[in-house]
Write a structure and sequence with these properties.
Blueprint lengths: L2 E6 L8 H16 L4 E6 L10 H11 L6 H18 L3 E7 L7 H10 L6 E3 L5 E3 L6 E6 L17 H10 L5 E6 L7 H18 L4
Parallel strand pairs: 1-2, 1-3, 3-6, 6-7
Antiparallel strand pairs: 4-5
This protein binds flavin mononucleotide (FMN).
């Protein structure tokens, strides 16, 4: 039995295109894998710990092989709990909206918490970085109001898909699957509906091989 962690990065509920497409994928996945567990982590409804001064100094202490203070220990316990939760999954799906050419702050906060030395990546003595989350697939569903396809004028502005793929690769993912829903705003409601429908069809077909 596998555990799928569904990371929900949009607060827009049923209006969210990335959530609608990811939901359709999860529904098809469950049909194909009835014994598997799917856990939803709704980032806008969860209490994520702040990644503040104590957490940051705790991170540097780890990188420099030093002991944590009591305050850092306390901050780090929350960070570690979230990382353990993240790593407990065998597969991942992510609903990721584009906000200001990047990602929503809650998703960035989650990334800042779980990307940690010794936990999700490591550095050897020569300074080479190595990801520690290996052998697990992820499907990321990206929604954006405009259009940013490779080769288009908008492509250079895409700090959403590019960033997510970079950070996933940094922590060890190699099986990174993507589906993009665009434009969800610039083309009007009908175009958005059509693009969302096409993405839903596509992900339904890929669910059984995930
Ligand atoms: C705060 C905010 C910032 C946004 N910034 C951008 C942007 O930079 N580029 C873009 O194309 N669309 C932008 N949008 C539009 C969203 O990308 C679009 O509505 C998308 O469908 C959101 O994903 P969702 O439907 O899954 O919530 C923004 C929306 C919000 C709420």
């Amino acid at each position: 039995m596998s555990k799928v962690l569904y990371i929900k990065g949009s607060p827009r509920g049923e209006r969210s295109h990335s959530v609608a497409v990811t939901d359709a994928f999860v529904e098809a996945y469950k049909k194909a894998n009835p014994g598997d567990e799917v856990e939803v982590l709704d980032l806008f409804k969860s209490q994520l710990p702040a990644f503040d001064g104590a957490a940051v100094s705790g991170k540097y202490k780890i990188m420099h092989g030093k002991e944590h203070s009591a305050e850092e220990k306390q901050a780090w316990a929350k960070v570690t709990a979230l990382i353990e939760h993240f790593k407990s999954a065998d597969k991942y799906v992510l609903a990721a909206p584009m906000w200001n050419f990047g990602i929503p702050y809650r998703l960035k906060q989650y990334i800042d918490i779980i990307v940690q030395p010794g936990q999700t990546f490591t550095v050897d003595e020569s300074g080479n970085y190595k990801g520690l989350v290996t052998g697990k697939p992820i499907l990321a569903v990206y929604a954006r109001g405009g259009e940013y396809a490779e080769g288009s004028a908008g492509a250079a502005f895409d700090m959403q898909k590019k960033y997510i793929e970079l950070i996933l690769g940094f922590i060890g993912f190699t099986d990174i699957r993507a589906i993009v829903v665009e434009p969800t705003l610039a083309g009007g409601g009908e175009v958005a509906k059509e693009k969302r429908g096409a993405a839903i069809e596509k992900v339904r077909q890929t669910a059984s091989s995930f």
